[in-house]
Write a structure and sequence with these properties.
2 helices; Phage_T4_Gp19; 7-stranded antiparallel sheet; 45% strand; CHP02241; Pnp Oxidase, Chain A; 9 strands; single chain; mainly beta; extended; structural molecule activity; two-stranded antiparallel sheet
């Protein structure tokens, strides 16, 4: 008999944890890619084939998007620290938690030494009806996927 069916998780239910900052409700969170740059190497006594060695690990940025409200948590308690060059306080640990349909943690990505590198205020349009969206781009120095 085949094992229990496991459907893939959906992308529409997630949480975000940021050390010391309470911000509920994001409309979109982009989980970045991770890569290891290959370094080509060959010694003269080896066959004429280049070896591939792992080089520096690189991580993309996390992007947060949310509908603007009267909350100033991310702007005042995080972005302002970067503007004031208080990097000791600005660096935080961040976690993105994907939830299953029942609301239980299903997958978790953790980011270390994270800090906001870009803040984007919403574009406004007097004839539009869209929700005003703020965006924060976060850089970090490492990510890992862990079991929740």
């Amino acid at each position: 008999m085949v094992g229990e069916r496991k459907d893939p998780y959906r992308t529409f239910r997630f949480l975000l944890e940021i050390d010391g900052i309470v911000q509920a409700g994001f409309s979109e969170v982009t989980i970045p890619d991770a890569s290891s740059e290959p370094v080509e190497y060959r010694e003269g006594s080896e066959p004429p084939t280049v070896r591939k060695l792992p080089g520096l690990n690189k991580y993309g940025n996390v992007t947060l998007k949310w509908g603007i409200t009267d909350s100033m948590e991310l702007y005042e308690k995080w972005w302002k620290l970067v503007e004031e060059c208080d990097m000791e306080k600005a660096r935080k640990n961040v976690a993105i938690i994907l939830m299953d349909c029942e609301g239980n943690p299903a997958a978790r990505w953790e980011f270390v030494e994270a800090w906001p590198s870009k803040y984007d205020a919403p574009d406004l349009n007097a004839t539009g009806t869209d929700v005003a969206i703020e965006t924060l781009e976060i850089v970090h120095e490492g990510m890992k996927r862990v079991k929740p």
